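Progress report, Aim 2. The chain analyzed during this reporting quarter is listed below.
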Amino acid sequence: MLLESLYGLGVGLALGMTGGGGVLAVPALVLGLGYSLPEAAPVALVAVGVSAFLGGLDGLRRGLVRYKAALLMALGGCPAGGGADAAVLRRAAADRRAHGEPGPEQTRAGSGTRGLAQKLHAQR
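Predicted structure tokens for the chain:
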């Protein structure tokens, strides 16, 4: 518990003072605390998101938020993120087809917990 608190304090200080401490969060969780990368990434994302939200609220309270610039960044960032997601999904589908693996539309099992149970049962 002490080690986790020290890592959190160090990453929190870096986030608070520079705004860039999120870069340290994943290595601290993986190397210092033994998290796997898929476990560490969402934890770091939440930490950075909460820090940014609180910083934004403080800036709003002080009147430091530039609304036009924030809106421009949001409008530019959202489609870019969606486009990147779509590109990753298209690439994954192309890789599955190239290796002869069935895609989600070709499997008997559906999605969700019922589909997962059917897939696990079929593997036995």
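Residues 2-123 form one domain. The first helix runs from residue 2 to 18. These observations will guide the mutagenesis work planned for the next reporting period.
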